[in-house]
Recover the amino acids of this structure.
């Protein structure tokens, strides 16, 4: 490792090693409060690392035990905050994003807005439904790395009301410049995930005017994705976490039992084909399964034209994998540079949406700082600039409240009867839609 | 063993807790019986215990909070909440490991032993109490 890291390298190392906090830091006045939501990845401290290509937003692990052994120490100097690598005696200037005023606000029903949604980087993340059904089985079928089931009722309100969501998003847009609201939910039982999301998406489009993303367990009823798009969804993400089927089965027992890895792939392939490059994400965790499986996942996701969302494994407190080691910097740097190159090879438009900085992952946009800046790099940069200009008008329209055609309370006319995941009907429907064409895994 | 039981506020807290929640009496007796160090938490609200047996050479951050469920279908039931406090002074977050409901007949000696052992291990996933509910749909009061 070079002695001085660039902003993205520092981001990766901080994800892997965490950070301690020096008593000189006055975070109570200066920072956003911490909230463990969204599977626990948001348990850390939001930080901005200035970089030469862009500022990098990240959520640094600080609560987990491994962070106590980190060489990195957050300190406050008269000139602002810095992260000191105590081992190498190198200081990095950083910024601490302040807590937005609306966090202290309440909705008209009296719900604290920070219990409805929180900023994760520069977007608003909202965990919509009452926890994840996997957690209510005995023994729990929750994903082994996840702590979602541990949050609701402790740190969050358990049921998100539509008007609360709309009011919070509106304040976040007005005061924090939020352009993207990401709606997330755990397993809702049977095939209800998209149905639950539909009214929120429409409400956000018509009453706030923001880009919307939906992340729920996949549906075998692929027509539901068309319906959600009609209701206003701009982006879907599919957290299949592990590409290696053995790791998928062992570490995601609920997803294995009720959905199966193939259901994720079917939905990912269908939506990627329908919506076009960069409108769909395949989400995986790096640092647990063998490295070659992670690289295979990146090839698969980007090969579909989808956006790779790669989380560096974090052994969050309370999870089954709390005592699993955090991955190494060298492995994760390799993964992230590979991810950038896979996006380049597949012409994935990265960093073109306005003001969307994701703090929980190393985004492909962040990873632009990793490769050698050669001809290939410059060509891709030029393409991305051109793509940004092309889509500017579309984003500007999307950021105004507007009517959407879909009816969240009724399925469209003529759609087939909903089927369950892993059923023969689900396989037949997927084949009919032209997916199931990509052999994956082992 | 309860380390700070001699302090005035601790005595008052214990007295109040025993009146409001008689179920904690056998818990306190078990704390005394076991050699593992615990202390009462001063600003815990209700009755809260902190475990102090070091875990892998690090400070043990485990806490047990005894409380009455304030809402939902379990309203009025007694429970014990297992959590860690944030390492960041300003954080309002509580890092939950779940709850165990206390039976109306009071906890069994085995349950109490499991709760305290779980805390002493720093909430090792392998030492989870049999009746631990990781997901629950009610509020744990501050």
């Amino acid at each position: 490792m070079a002695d001085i890291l660039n902003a993205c390298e520092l981001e990766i190392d901080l994800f892997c090693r965490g950070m301690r906090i020096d008593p000189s830091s006055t975070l109570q006045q200066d920072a956003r409060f911490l909230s463990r939501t969204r599977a626990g990845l948001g348990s850390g401290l939001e930080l901005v690392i200035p970089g030469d290509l862009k500022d990098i937003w990240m959520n640094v692990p600080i609560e987990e035990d491994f962070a106590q052994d980190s060489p990195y120490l957050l300190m406050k100097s008269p000139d602002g905050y810095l992260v000191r690598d105590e081992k190498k005696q190198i200081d990095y200037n950083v910024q601490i994003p302040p807590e937005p005023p609306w966090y202290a606000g309440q909705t008209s029903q009296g719900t604290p807005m920070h219990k409805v949604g929180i900023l994760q980087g520069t977007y608003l993340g909202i965990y919509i439904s009452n926890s994840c059904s996997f957690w209510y089985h005995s023994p729990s079928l929750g994903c082994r790395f996840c702590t979602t089931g541990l949050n609701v009722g402790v740190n969050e309100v358990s049921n998100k009301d539509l008007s609360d969501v709309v009011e919070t998003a509106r304040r976040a847009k007005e005061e924090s410049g939020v352009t993207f609201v990401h709606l997330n939910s755990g397993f809702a039982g049977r095939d209800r995930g998209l149905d639950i999301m539909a009214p929120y998406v429409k409400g956000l489009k018509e009453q706030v005017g923001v880009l919307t993303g939906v992340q729920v367990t996949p549906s075998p009823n692929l027509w539901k994705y068309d319906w959600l798009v009609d209701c206003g969804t701009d982006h879907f993400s599919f957290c299949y976490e592990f590409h290696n089927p053995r790791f998928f089965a062992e570490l995601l027992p609920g997803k294995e039992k009720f959905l199966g890895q193939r259901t994720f792939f079917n939905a990912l392939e269908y939506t990627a084909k329908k919506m076009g490059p960069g409108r769909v994400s395949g989400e995986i965790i790096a640092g647990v399964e063998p490295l070659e499986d992670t690289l295979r996942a990146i090839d698969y996701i980007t090969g579909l034209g989808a956006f790779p969302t790669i989380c560096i494994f974090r052994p969050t407190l309370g999870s089954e994998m709390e005592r699993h080691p955090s991955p190494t910097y060298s492995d994760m740097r390799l993964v992230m540079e590979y991810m950038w190159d896979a996006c380049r090879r597949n012409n994935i438009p990265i960093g073109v949406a306005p003001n969307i900085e994701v703090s929980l992952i190393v985004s492909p946009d962040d990873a632009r700082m990793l490769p050698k800046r050669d001809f290939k790099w410059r060509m891709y940069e030029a393409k991305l600039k051109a793509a940004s200009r092309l889509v500017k008008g579309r984003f500007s329209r999307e950021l105004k409240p507007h009517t959407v055609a879909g009816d969240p309370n009724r399925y469209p006319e003529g759609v087939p009867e909903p089927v369950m995941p892993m059923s023969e009907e689900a396989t037949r429907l997927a084949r009919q839609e032209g997916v199931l064409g990509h052999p994956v895994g082992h | 063993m309860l380390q700070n039981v001699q302090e005035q506020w601790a005595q008052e807290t214990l007295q109040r807790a025993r009146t409001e929640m008689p179920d904690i009496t056998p818990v306190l007796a078990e704390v005394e019986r076991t050699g593992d160090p615990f202390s009462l938490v001063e600003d815990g609200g209700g009755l809260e215990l902190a475990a102090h047996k070091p875990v892998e050479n690090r400070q043990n951050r485990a806490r047990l909070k005894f409380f009455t469920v304030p809402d939902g279908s379990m309203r009025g039931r007694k429970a014990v909440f297992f959590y860690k406090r944030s390492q960041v002074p300003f954080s309002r977050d509580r890092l939950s490991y779940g709850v165990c409901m206390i039976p109306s007949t009071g906890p069994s000696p085995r349950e109490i032993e499991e709760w305290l052992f779980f805390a002493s291990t720093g909430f090792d996933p392998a030492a989870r109490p049999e009746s631990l509910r990781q997901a629950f749909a009610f509020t744990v009061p501050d």
Q: What stands out?
A: The interface with chain A takes residues 56, 58, 83-84, 86-98, 123-125, 134-140 of chain B (CB under 8 Å). The longest helix of chain B spans residues 8-20. The helical segments of chain B are 8-20, 24-33, 109-120. The mean pLDDT of chain B is 89.
